[in-house]
UniProtKB/TrEMBL annotation:
Protein name: YmaF family protein
Lineage: Bacteria, Bacillati, Bacillota, Bacilli, Bacillales
Cross-referenced InterPro entries: YmaF
Length: 129
């Protein structure tokens, strides 16, 4: 029988019941990191008479463990300027059909002929390998 190298860790649950449980979280399979990312996109708030669109993909994070993702992208050019969007998502939100998404929210960098920021928020797409 062929052996496949797997790495990960066991997480002990502090359930209030007399029984307790453990979860196995795999971080690599057959020598490859067991990671995933999420697509995200949206439109910023209206400020200084315009909005910006944005699209990106999060940094990778381990699959199956409590985690968040860092993200970074540049908005579309509008009114002669762009803004940077960056931050970290909230924790995973499980989907009833499998997989999960993350909520994200923040403010862009300051930019423009009349310096200003835009608010943005949204939910990532489902996980992608």
């Amino acid at each position: 029988m062929e052996k496949i190298p797997v790495t990960g860790f066991v997480f002990h649950s502090n359930d209030s019941l007399s029984d307790h449980s453990h979860g196995l979280y795999i971080t690599s399979w057959d020598g490859r990191p067991y990671l995933h990312r999420h697509m995200f996109s949206g439109i910023t708030s209206l400020n200084d008479g315009h909005v910006h669109e944005y699209v990106g993909i999060t940094e990778p994070a381990p699959t199956g463990v409590p985690h968040f993702h860092r993200y970074h992208t540049v908005t579309s050019m509008n009114d002669g300027h762009t803004h940077i969007i960056e931050g970290a998502t909230g924790p995973a939100i499980d989907l009833p059909t499998g997989g999960h998404v993350h909520y994200f929210e923040g403010f862009t960098t300051i930019s423009g002929m009349h310096p200003h920021t835009h608010h943005y928020k949204g939910t990532t797409g489902n996980e992608v390998g």
